Amino acid sequence: MRVILYCLFTFFSFQVFDASAGTKKQPSKGTKKTAFTPNRQWELRLRERLRSGQEVRMLAPVSEENVTGSKVKFSWERNQEKGKLFLGILSNENMEVFYREVFDSQALIDAKENNLKPGLYYWVLESEQDVLAVGKFYFRK
């Protein structure tokens, strides 16, 4: 639910960018160098074991995957088919890029429609009560 994502925004709003943390790939020409800088607080969140981790198994994107093309595909398997699911995408600067209820076991996000620029993004899959999965991907045109 949006309340959970808002709480995550609030919690991570004091983020500290770790300029010394390198990424595997260099940004493409014309891309802000900071677009690929990891967000320290989100990186810590990725390492946490989520309480509801058995409810959902993410299939795509695999965390830290390089995603290219005009669409980003998210897919998952859910053990319990009850309740609503929400997918949120945030930039490494903690700006909400996408947040919607998702209805099937996948979502296809249009990069142009959602103004995805090359960079590092974090995603959150949540129910109305809990954060179910958190990951990141690198979007490259």
Plain-language structure description:
This protein has 141 residues and is mainly β. It has one domain: Immunoglobulin-like. The strands form 2 sheets. Strands 2-8-7-4-5 form a 5-stranded mixed sheet, with helices on one face. It has a 3-stranded antiparallel sheet with strand order 1-3-6, with no helix packed on it. The radius of gyration is 14 Å and the shape is globular. The chain starts with a helix and ends with a strand.
Relative helix content: 10-25%
The ordered string of helix (H) and strand (E) elements is HHEEEEEEEE
Task: Give the second-level CATH assignment, the architecture.
Answer: Sandwich
| CATH level-3 fold name | Immunoglobulin-like
So how many helices? Answer: 2
Strand content: 35-45%
What is the SS-derived class? mainly beta
Distance between the termini: 30 Å
Apparent shape: globular
List the helices and strands and how they pair.
Layout: H1 2-12, H2 40-47, E1 56-60, E2 65-68, E3 71-78, E4 85-91, E5 96-102, E6 106-110, E7 119-126, E8 131-140
Parallel strand pairs: 2-8
Antiparallel strand pairs: 1-3, 3-6, 4-5, 4-7, 7-8
What is this structure, in a nutshell?
The chain has helices spanning 2-12, 40-47, and strands at 56-60, 65-68, 71-78, 85-91, 96-102, 106-110, 119-126, 131-140. It is mostly beta strands and 141 residues long. The chain has one domain: Immunoglobulin-like, CATH 2.60.40.2840.
